[in-house]
């Protein structure tokens, strides 16, 4: 009499990983996400390894998680995986105030982001 399990949102040849509340603005995170979209996972990992952006470490961690999900949970071949989607969303925004001259204050916003990475198994080309 329990609740029925939800149908799988992804295809059988896909796996995903979500990194939530990354301390970076969505605009900056999207620059790194655009770097890996559509690439083979081996190339994407190499690009993230040598990227000079600070957030590339967290993006690499999320990509490795998606690869591990594909391999362990969905029995996909790691060598045939491609980054199908890498999309960025807004999360919470911390508001802070910075003291300025003449008793005024300036608002400082510290945004957080969410990152979703979907990897897809593409048939090996003969």
TrEMBL record:
This is Large ribosomal subunit protein uL22. Keywords: Ribonucleoprotein, Ribosomal protein, RNA-binding, rRNA-binding. Belongs to the universal ribosomal protein uL22 family. CDD domains: Ribosomal_L22. It comes from Chelatococcus daeguensis. This protein binds specifically to 23S rRNA; its binding is stimulated by other ribosomal proteins, e.g., L4, L17, and L20. It is important during the early stages of 50S assembly. It makes multiple contacts with different domains of the 23S rRNA in the assembled 50S subunit and ribosome. GO terms for molecular function: rRNA binding; structural constituent of ribosome. It holds the Pfam family Ribosomal_L22. One of its GO terms (biological process) is translation. SUPFAM superfamilies: Ribosomal protein L22. The keyword rRNA-binding applies.
